[in-house]
Fold this protein.
Amino acid sequence: METIFSKIIEGSIPCNKVFENERILAFYDIEPAAPVHVLIIPKKPIPSMNEVAPEDLPLIGEMHSVAQQIAKDLGIAETGYRLINNCGPDSGQAVSHLHYHLVGGAKLGALVGGSSSHA
């Protein structure tokens, strides 16, 4: 299924790249929710976290490593950031292509458990 992300991966839609290798692409979100808002996507078309197969787990791990490196490179690793994956329509997933939002660069509001002693 073709999505805006598949068009970005193929190069027919431009993006402001932060990182790219043969498996992963990361670029700035065009509607940022924070001063730093980067989308990290696999080049493999996986619709959502629900469709991640056992053979995809190394790719997911690599995406997390890329997120760590981008956070360091953009100067938000020490102050804090969020790595968010929305899965399905009730979560707000707008594009049917697995992706993470790396968000930081400002004090972010609390989420569920964010200020709780259970966190």
Observations:
- The first strand starts at residue 17 and ends at 20.
- The chain has one domain: 4-104.
